[in-house]
Amino acid sequence: MLAAVSLMAIIRDAEGGIWWCKWDSPIYIWSSDIWSKHNSQHLFDPYAFTHVLHGFIFYWLARLIFRKRISFAWTLFAAVLGESIWELIENSRYVIELYRANTASLEYFGDSIANSIGDVIACFTGFYVAYRMQVWRSIIVFFLIEIILVLTIKDSLLINIIMLIHPIEAIKTWQMGGG
Questions:
Q1: Considering its fold, how many domains does the chain have in total?
Q2: Which of 20, 72, 118, 125 is buried deepest, with most CB atoms within 10 A?
Q3: What is the pTM of this model?
Q4: Structural domain that includes position 110
Q5: CA distances (Å), 56 to each of 4, 74, 103, 133, 134, in order?
Q6: Structural domain contains residue 15
């Protein structure tokens, strides 16, 4: 797992990713304001919770596909590898521009490498939590996290997916404080 995360960080660095906040700020573990230039630049931010939900989804998929024929360690490794690959995709020029065009993240320019590592840690945590809770309880927690994110930051994993696949102008306007 460490090799997957390390390789992701090395590739992000080779692609010109920054390691920590480019705004010459103190090192924060948590940055809470999604509208600030520090969003996605420090280890964790509110979007880390969407990556926790990635871990839930990876767990559910592993249960569905492997039906416990593969050990917990290997399925957790697959989740960490999958999330590391997602971090490379999410921080590609194409996806960054998609976020900027279709979501309220108008000034988004990609995650720092530290934030990508934090997102993988969040996914790891989500996978483990879902494993401990089992499927039905984790589904309830999944939707509770979604609701809390919608109420606190006007965004969530499901809204992000909708806005990337089929943008809805009314959602974008709502997120930006209008209507």
A1: 1
A2: 118
A3: 0.90
A4: 48-175
A5: 19, 16, 24, 10, 10
A6: no
